[in-house]
Amino acid sequence: MLKFLLIVILLAIAVYLLVRVIQRRGLIGTDRPRDHTPPRPFGPDDDDEFLRELERRRRHPGDSDA
């Protein structure tokens, strides 16, 4: 009985390691994207349209479209 249990444990370890190697090589897809960096927060100072509008308001303070 002890030999059977040892064989099952070794087989489980071998299957686990085989799956890990295959996943690292990219042969099996995973749910999470690879090397995906989270998107940066998009602030108003990164928005080109926002910056153009600020520049327009600075150059023409009396011209308000609001």
Automatic annotation (TrEMBL):
<protein>
    <submittedName>
        <fullName>Uncharacterized protein</fullName>
    </submittedName>
</protein>
<feature type="compositionally biased region" description="Basic and acidic residues">
    <location>
        <begin position="51"/>
        <end position="66"/>
    </location>
</feature>
<feature type="region of interest" description="Disordered">
    <location>
        <begin position="29"/>
        <end position="66"/>
    </location>
</feature>
